[in-house]
Amino acid sequence: MSHRNARLTVFGRRLLVERVRSGRPVAHVAAEMGISRATAHKWIRRWRTEGEAGLHDRSSRPHTTPHRTASAVEDRVCDLRQGRKLGPARIGPIVGLPTSTVHRILTRHRLNRLAWIDRPTGTVIRRYERERPGELIHVDVKKLGRIPDGGGHKTNGREAGRPIRGMGFDYVHSAVDDHSRLAYSEIHPDEKVATCAGFLTRAAAFFRSQGIDRIERVLTDNAWAYRKGLAWRNALADLQATGKLTQAYRPQTNGKVERFNRTLLDEWAYLRPYTSNTERTEALASFLHTYNHHRCHTALGGHPPITRVNNPAGQYI
């Protein structure tokens, strides 16, 4: 994944190399592409020494960290945290380190939150999460009012943009992989059984295209389509997946897709004033690509969901 402020993607770096190879001066090519000559020379140098592989991103982590706290001291910090449940302000004076350094050590070892530690034993326990992609898929539907042509109240003001009777609603069907948080969404005019079943089939095809070969279980709320729908059961059978229902009146059970719905509203549906329902619908694909491939996810250590699919062991976090 390229840095969010990077001028060049891998494609741009290939384009840079091709232009320089054609005989043009590096300085001229750099000016055309809006980068410095030093940056252009860096990528040309990497290409000459490493070939195509040199044009891809690499970790910015240094090879050595000479001033990092000694491992014995870090072990002492972790022991105090797990054994006595002390915070950084109390551990610091004991081991002779600043509070900020102790906090960084605890964060590095995933001990910065006491909620992640079993109080009686001090054993590290993680938040609920499945071990591999495809083991559990969360599915839910979000209902959104349609936008009239010319825009609604966000574009024209509260009075001019009053809802038009009969505009109806869009139903955003979403599926989120529990382990990787990879997401897939579609917009439909309803949430009937056939619609839900068709969505599940296409969602499974999307996950396969991204590297999740099999869906084992699908978690949904207690809507009639999921509890009683024959087409839904057939879709599950075709995937050789098991359906699972949340506890009644406990949306937290389906929390990952519920949280995705909030992100969906903040970063797509309500991101800006749309002038038509079609404009908002067309923007969904771009949001999903950004979410899956570029957007930093705090639960994944700042990496996008696609990295968890390619790296199911999860060493990023």
Which descriptors would you attach to this protein?
globular; five-stranded mixed β-sheet; alpha/beta; about 325 residues
Protein architecture, described:
The chain is built from 13 helices and five strands. The chain has helices spanning 10-21, 26-33, 37-50, 71-84, 88-95, 99-108, 153-156, 193-209, 224-227, 230-239, 255-269, 277-293, 305-310; strands at residues 137-145, 169-177, 183-188, 217-220, 242-245. Strands 3-2-1-4-5 form a five-stranded mixed sheet, with helices on both faces. Strand 2 (169-177) and strand 3 (183-188) form a beta hairpin. Helix 1 crosses helix 3 and helix 8 (193-209) packs parallel to helix 10 (230-239). The model has no long low-confidence stretch (mean pLDDT 88).
Radius of gyration: 25 Å
Report the span from N to C terminus: 16 Å
Low-confidence parts:
none
Shape: globular
- Coarse structural class: alpha/beta
Fraction of residues in H or I helices: 40-55%
For the biggest sheet, the summary is: 5 strands, mixed
Spatial order of the strands forming the largest sheet: 3-2-1-4-5
Short description:
By secondary structure, this protein is α/β, with parallel strands linked by helices. The protein contains 13 helices and five strands.
